Amino acid sequence: MAAGPRVLIAPDKFKGSLTAAAVAHHLGLGLRRAVPDLAVRVLPVADGGDGTVDAAVAAGFERLEVEVTGPVGTPVRAAFAVRGGTAVVEMAEASGLSRLPRGRLAPLEAGTRGTGELIAAALDAGARRIVLGVGGSASTDGGAGMLSALGARLLDRAGRPLASGGGPLCDLATADLSGLDPRLATTEVVLASDVDNPLLGPTGAAAVYGPQKGADSGQVARLEAALDHYARVLADSVGPSAADAVSAPGAGAAGGIGYGALVGLGATFRPGIELLLEVLGFAEALARADLVITGEGSLDAQTLRGKAPVGVAGAARRWGVEVVAVCGRLALEPEELLGAGFARTYALSALEPDPARSMAEAGPLLERVGERIARDFALR
């Protein structure tokens, strides 16, 4: 066992700049530059959105890749992670904004079929517990594509399979979930999300997140009506539980895929960072740490709503371990940072005020921050 201080580096990604693993790597280089024999453990984290599979792989899961249907129908290579009987499936890998050809948004047509295909691949790999991380979705289809890929029959008035996307949900006439993959009945599915929005209404999937997927005001209204119709048809087929799930926490996550998972897959909802810390073995790593370094690209009001750094800080605080945060951009007041559990915060913008250069040079800047943390906390 190391005689000196032990540091746990557990950041989320710096979106658009560095993966969580790269952030941790550069911080570790800086720390060890200042203190060559410092005991450092790296455990990148995620809250269910993009980067979740990478975090699982960094924690020791095996990465598997399959070809699935992308959000607008073109094939994509998508990864999931497995360890023992647990699989981590990240919807952004198959149905995320980053999977849209040439980045062209398709708010009415994008679907989630590929996510269902990823879940099927996880079942084929022997998973009996599936952590479904949602976030970064290109679609507002209520998980209809996912359910169809897993055996549900969603038909229009002419008895044809429903077209992909949230817009066509208005044409749904019948829903039959009896053909869902029978392995799901003996598989625990846990929905991991950093948002707890309901499916419908002013805080629902279409109103809050539709514009992020390219929907204008008219398309948002159409998607809202389509999701409402979809939920009514599912309630006729499944029963009262489908109606109750409309207002359940997480139903509106990732374009309503949370609703599809709750109704069709029997999923339970848990805050993403809480669940992922458990899956990644954070408690065991934390028990051996004297200082934790976490962070993400922007520390702002969204961070305080259950993003990864706040989850890390909360867990560390329960163990009495001090936490510092690093970020590219800082948009919180000192009292907010202290209230969130951060003893000190380091922003790359303090070293490089130009945002474009800060993002491009994030690695070297993080190494400088690592050196400074070593000095500030007397880690020798």
UniProtKB/TrEMBL annotation:
Gene3D superfamilies: Glycerate kinase, domain 1, Glycerate kinase, domain 2. GO terms for biological process: organic acid phosphorylation. Keywords: Kinase, Transferase. GO terms for molecular function: glycerate kinase activity. It comes from the Bacteria. InterPro entries: Glyc_kinase_flavodox-like_fold (IPR018193), Glycerate_kinase (IPR004381), Glycerate_kinase_RE-like (IPR018197), Glycerate_kinase_sf (IPR036129). The keyword Kinase applies. Pfam families: Gly_kinase. Belongs to the glycerate kinase type-1 family. This is Glycerate kinase. The lineage of its organism: Bacteria, Bacillati, Actinomycetota, Actinomycetes, Kitasatosporales.
